[in-house]
Amino acid sequence: MSGPAALYVHVPFCHARCRYCDFHSHARSAAALRTLGPAFVESLIARIEALGRARALTDLRTAYIGGGTPSVLGVRLADIVRTIRSYADIEELTCEANPESFTDDLAAAIAKAGATRVSLGVQSFDDGELRAIGRLHDADAARAAIRIARRHGLRTSIDLMCGLPGQTDRSWDRTLAEAVRSAAGHVSVYPLVIEDGTPLAGMVDAGLLDVPDEDFQPDAMARARYVLGSAGLEPYEVASYAATDEQCLHNIAYWTGVPYLGIGPSAASMLDRASADAVRAAVDIPSLEEGSYRIRFVEDECGDVSPWRDIEYLSGREAAAEDLMLGMRLTHGLDSRRLRSLGAMVGEARLARAQARAERAGLARWVTGSAGERRFAPTERGWLLGNELFGIFWELASDD
């Protein structure tokens, strides 16, 4: 029985929702969380233990506790970490945290329990930009959180956002310089997306906040690639930069088609037949349809009618096309062995035509890897025009 290789645990609580957020999260005060938190943690632990007893977690290589803001659980977060560790010999265990709730005691507790990595939602080192998007911390708190994580031996990642209200070329450069000075081993850079229905969208529409023009974000992403790369943080994925041996294994799992399990409200799973069978020994998850290769589903927020929603079945062709598309997110692309395997599922001639099309458009090319292997990898143009590149390979999911 081969179970999922990656586990995601969703904690849906925050002390306040950011103005841009459309994730499943609930703002709760510290006092409310003292009441809600313990029961929520115990429910998660019970589910992890059930999976562990059924030996559904024995193949895990990474785990990621995200949200929401897991750090609002305080030292109880360590109990979740400890439970995962008791059933899985994993290489990497990440906890998300926000600077205002990441304390010295919490860092010590999760490190002792077996966390190896913390991902801090810094977003910016400019206090005005942080206020504009409704963050609770300031730049000093972000700097302090990074120092705390490093002091307790936790590999440290920081998230940054470009295109924030009031952000300028100069302030973005200052944020990038601060990220480099922080000595964080991993930096993720995301363009701000203003989602309909969020407070930020309402404020921008009402003229209360101004965001940079449409050219700012691609320029800022390119600037980040140069600044972070020059500092030794090499891009390994569209939005991710890392020092040597600091890549996020959990991120890579998502982009390489390995089966992953999500638990907690709105957590997403993607399982093949073997990993679904392993999980089903403990949890009554949806079954794969006859002829399907993979299943994707999301845990419902409340489970009043069904605990699962957005159930999707992928054929072998669709799964291979998805893996090809996601492989183009990675700087090193896909090696020739992986391409042969996926080509057998989508059709070798069809794959060759897609590759030729990507090459003609200057979006991808063949390169020789450090070990001498041949790889098909995105160019810088392909990195900047990712949706165009991804679309070429996703078209292989069709039967045409």
Question: Main traits of this protein?
Answer:
alpha/beta, nine-stranded mixed beta sheet
Task: Provide the fold topology.
Layout: E1 6-11, E2 13-14, E3 26-27, H1 30-53, E4 62-67, H2 77-87, E5 92-97, H3 104-113, E6 117-123, H4 127-132, H5 139-151, E7 155-162, H6 169-182, E8 186-191, H7 199-205, H8 216-230, E9 234-237, E10 240-242, H9 249-255, E11 260-263, E12 268-272, H10 273-280, E13 294-299, E14 308-314, H11 316-327, E15 334-335, H12 336-346, H13 348-360, E16 364-368, E17 374-378, H14 380-384, H15 386-394
Parallel strand pairs: 1-4, 1-11, 2-3, 4-5, 5-6, 6-7, 7-8
Antiparallel strand pairs: 8-10, 9-10, 12-13, 13-14, 15-17, 16-17
Number of strands: 17
Assembly state of the chains shown: single chain
Strand order within the widest beta sheet: 9-10-8-7-6-5-4-1-11
Distance between the termini: 35 Å
Biggest pleated sheet: 9 strands, mixed
How many DSSP H or I helices? 15
Poorly predicted residue ranges: none
The coarse silhouette is globular
Radius of gyration: 21 Å
| Computed structural class | alpha/beta
Helicity range:
40-55%
